[in-house]
């Protein structure tokens, strides 16, 4: 699984004779005729220790040479890299390891990149917010539009410009960071959370009032309070922003 003998390529190079820590496992893997050793917690081409604060990226890529190029290039730029060889293993890795960002080839076997994103959004909506970038063999406008309609954050074609890819990744991760900071600054009451949850489910104020046995005026009061705290103009925008920020779980 996940390239069988590698398990997950998240991992710093271990020099011969070195000892893995208690939390690590050394995996021997023959790579293009050369034996390499990988230590859990980050593929670091320099052999230096990986900082636990570094962002983890899962690359779903069935071509070994491409996967190694991507892993090496991004590891050299300070990321921890995991690799899965097909869509099914990639989906399982996302669910299990919750990477900070996913790079997924569109045409991977067993489950296409499009199917991975669709399944992820269906079975784990919260994980569906992990930045998801498609990798494609060539430019295909129809495929790119489909990927973006499914919710992909970006679409990169090969040959990959790794400097550009690194900038894309940094921008997506920075956006996630902003979305994790502002919710801590918003204090919604239990009643406001309840009202926005019903709004996010598509209920009107009249419907919410009937369900909760209260007046429409009271419902509107709490929704308006939440809207002001979230600094948006409409209740729909408030529900969307609260959902993105993890303040409600509709």
Q: Return the average pLDDT rounded to an integer.
A: 75
Adjacency order of strands in the biggest sheet: 5-4-6-7-8
**Shape verdict:** elongated
Q: List segments where confidence is low: pLDDT < 50 over at least 5 consecutive residues.
A: 1-52
Q: What is the number of E strands?
A: 8
- What name does CATH use for the topology of the largest domain? Rossmann fold
Oligomer: single chain
| CATH superfamily annotation of the largest domain | Response regulator
SSE run: EEEEHEHEHEHEHHHHH
Fraction of residues in H or I helices: 40-55%
CATH architecture of the largest domain: 3-Layer(aba) Sandwich
Helix/strand-derived class? alpha/beta
Tell me the strand percentage band: 15-25%
Count of alpha/pi helices? 9
Q: What kind of sheet is the major sheet? A: 5 strands, parallel
Distance between the termini: 34 Å
**Number of domain modules:** 2
Spatial extent as radius of gyration: 22 Å
CATH class of the largest domain: Alpha Beta
Task: Tell me briefly what this model is.
By secondary structure, the chain is an alpha/beta fold. It has helices at 64-75, 87-97, 113-123, 141-149, 162-181, 190-200, 205-212, 216-230, 235-244, and strands at 11-13, 26-31, 34-40, 56-60, 80-84, 101-105, 132-136, 154-157.
């Amino acid at each position: 699984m996940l390239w069988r003998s590698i398990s997950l390529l998240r991992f710093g190079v271990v020099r011969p004779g070195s000892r893995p820590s208690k939390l690590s496992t050394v995996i021997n893997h023959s790579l293009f005729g050369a034996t390499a050793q990988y230590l859990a917690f980050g593929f670091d081409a320099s052999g230096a220790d990986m900082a636990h604060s570094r962002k983890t990226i899962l690359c779903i890529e069935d071509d070994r040479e491409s996967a190694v190029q991507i892993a090496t290039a991004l590891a050299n730029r300070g990321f921890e890299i995991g690799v899965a060889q097909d869509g099914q293993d990639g989906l399982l890795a996302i669910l299990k390891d919750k990477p900070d960002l996913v790079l997924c080839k569109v045409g991977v076997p067993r489950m296409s990149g499009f199917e991975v994103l669709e399944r992820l959004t269906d079975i784990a909506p919260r994980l569906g917010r992990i930045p998801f970038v498609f990798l494609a063999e060539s430019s295909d406008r129809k495929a790119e539009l489909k990927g973006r309609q499914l919710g992909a954050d970006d679409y990169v074609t090969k040959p990959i410009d790794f400097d550009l890819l690194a900038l894309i990744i940094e921008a997506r991760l920075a956006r996630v960071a902003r979305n994790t900071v502002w919710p801590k600054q918003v204090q919604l009451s239990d009643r406001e959370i309840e009202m926005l949850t019903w709004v996010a489910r598509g209920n009107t104020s009249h419907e919410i009032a009937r369900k909760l046995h209260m007046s429409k005026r009271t419902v509107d009061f709490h929704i308006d309070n939440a809207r002001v705290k979230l600094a948006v103009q409409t209740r729909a925008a408030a529900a969307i922003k609260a959902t993105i920020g993890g303040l409600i779980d509709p």
